[in-house]
Structures are given as structure tokens and as C-alpha cells.
Amino acid sequence: MAVVGTVVGSGLVVGTGTAQAANFYTPPSNFASAPGSVVKTQPTELLLQIPGIRGQWPGTATKIMYTSTKQDGAPTAVTGTVVEPTAPWRGKGPRPTVVLAPGTVGQGDQCAGSKMLSFPMSIDPTKPSLGVNYSGLEMNLFLLNGVRVVMTDYIGLGTPGIHTYVNRLESGHAVLDAARAALKVAKAPKDAPVAFSGYSQGGGAAASAAELASTYAADLNVKATYAGAPPADLSKVITKIDGTFIAGAISYAINGLAARYPALGPILTKETNAHGEQVLHNVATQCIADTGLSYGFQRTNQWTRSGKSLASVINGYPEIQKMLADQRIGTLKPNAPVLISTGVNDDVIPHGQVVQLYRDWKKQGATVHLANDYTPPIFPGLVVNHAMPMLFTMLPATNFILSEFNR
């Protein structure tokens, strides 16, 4: 009965939530433009917590809306969640904060992680849509160690506008500004220790934050970053992910790029066929499970007028190559130690481009460590070899960050 009550109360059955919850994601007409400003907050609950009671195990959760920065420098409102742990921090100095950058959850607003805290799944039969928040395990590992956690929803996920999936600047900004906002909400010291952690899309966001911190957020006391399977070079990732169960995620990236690079629109009109146009339109409101079930294992040559793969089409447009080059992670030096992990047989994020990121940072003198996972190939294309290394490196990654907090 308790489980059923939790499911119903979380909106799993109805999928739409309350009007108050929906209104939270609409920014006010005017809000503070300084990055990391707190626009508004709202109490919320974690899994199996009793609504309305603060201070429950493993922590007290608060939804936040905060200010971040778009690629062009314009301020924008982003949502997320701050969780103040019940457990005390027994390490060195004041309680530290970890920003969790979620992996790929989708491009529809209903996929935002902050909407799936009281239950890590949402079903909306009207779309239909299935959303999953799989950051809870990592979040709880930090909470149990007395570490404050803030999870960003990213720009355009939950809030108005398209989610700019794997946009280097915008994902990095969202992570860095989440840290600033969390310190304000917690009334923590401005120089309290901060770290970033993420896998896959989240690994890219964490890696971007690590290398942008010294220029965009020099006020933060960054101690460490864990970047698992980061998509550091999208030109390599597109080829690898093509034809897999989550091939449709390529369209998330295209939609995000089109929103920031107007020159891409006419090219898409010229190169995509009717089916390709439908894919781009549909995935914009889907979660990753929806996209996998709708377009899993499709090849991008099914989306083009010429019958060429998307990678081949890109080769004919220097302007698109420049757009992808703008998203390349590894050109700047992180200002704190970084742990990078990669699966040698990862079937979604190419191992080689992760290793190249490691080399790029090492050449710049960064303190960076590389952890290889050697899980053998298991049903290539089903994303198993992408998911398994995430689970295997979660505890070592947590320990790495905790160790850096205590230096």
C-alpha cells in the first residue's frame, strides 16, 4: 500500500503532476541575470519520503530555478534539485557539494530529473512517454557520506525552449551555475569545496565544467571532477551511435545545434527526407526510452534524401564541421584533478575519443587519471557495454571525489 501510495502521489499514474509543480518550471518575466542567482525554490520529496516533512533520510530536497548562460552569453533560467544530507559531513573543512550531471534522459520537458524525485519513473499515457531518472544511486552514495548534492536539469529541459543536448558551453555553464546556486540555497561558505560528477552526457557536462571553471566560475573552490564516458568529440560519437538502440539521440544533438546555429536549418531542409524530418520533430518531446522504442537500431541513411549516412553528409559541409568542433572538449585545462573512465568496448561512446581527451588534458599539464573498463562485448548496439562500465566505476568515482575533498 505504501508503494502504491508513493506511485500515485508521485504522478507516475497520471503523469502530469499538479498545477503548482508545472508552474514552477515557468520562469518569471524578470529574474536576476547574474550566473548562479537563485530565481525560486520549492520543497520536494525523495523516494518513499512522507510529503511535507523536512529532515527525512537520506536528505532534504529542494527544487531550484537558477540563472545560467546560453552559448551567446544571454541569461537563461534552469531548474534542478538541491539535497541537503541528513548524515553529517565528517571529512575535512565545511560540508562539500557535488553537482550531478545526469546522463541522457531525453529532450522532452517531462524527462527532467527534478520531476522524478519522489519516484524515479514517470508514465504519461497521453503522449505516450516513459521517463526514467537513474541518478538516484549515485546521489545516495554522496548523501550517505554527508555530501550535499545538486542535480541540474540542464538548459531547456523542463524549462521553455529546446534542450541543447551535449552543447559544450551550455552544459558546462549549467553545471557550474548549479554549484553556485546550491551554495546560496544551503547558505554555505562561498569557498566551500565543490566537485562535478557525471556519466555519458553527464560525463561531457562534468568535463566541460571542469575546463570552463577557471574562466567562467573562478569563484568556485573546485576540488575534483569525475567524467565517465564523456562524448568529447561529437564527430566520432555520431558514427559510433548510428544504428544502435539509442540512435535517435543523434537527433537530440541536431535539434540542439539547430536552435543555436540558424545556418543549420536550411541544410536540414535540403538534406533530410520526410522520415528524417519526422524523427527530428518527434524526439524533441520524447524521453530516451520513447526514442529507443520508436527509432532504435535505425541508420541515419534512412533519414537523408541522398541515402548517405549523417556522418557522410556532414563531411560535405564545413560549416557543420565547425559547429561540431565548437563542442569539442579538451581545448582548455581543468583547474582541479579529474578522473576519466571509459569502456574499451563501449558500444555508444567511442573509447578512442575518451582517451584522446585524457591526452589533450595531460599535454596541458592537468592532473588527470584514466580508468579503463574491460567488460567484453555483450549484445553490441543494445547499450549494455555503455551501461555496465557506469555501474562498475560508480563506487571508485565516488571514492575519488571523497578523497580529493579530504586533501
TrEMBL record:
It comes from Gordonia phthalatica. GO terms for molecular function: triacylglycerol lipase activity. Pfam families: LIP. This is Lipase. InterPro entries: AB_hydrolase_fold (IPR029058), Lipase_secreted (IPR005152). GO terms for biological process: lipid catabolic process. PANTHER family: LIPASE 5 (PTHR34853:SF1), PTHR34853. The keyword Signal applies. Residues 1-21 form the signal peptide. Keywords: Signal.
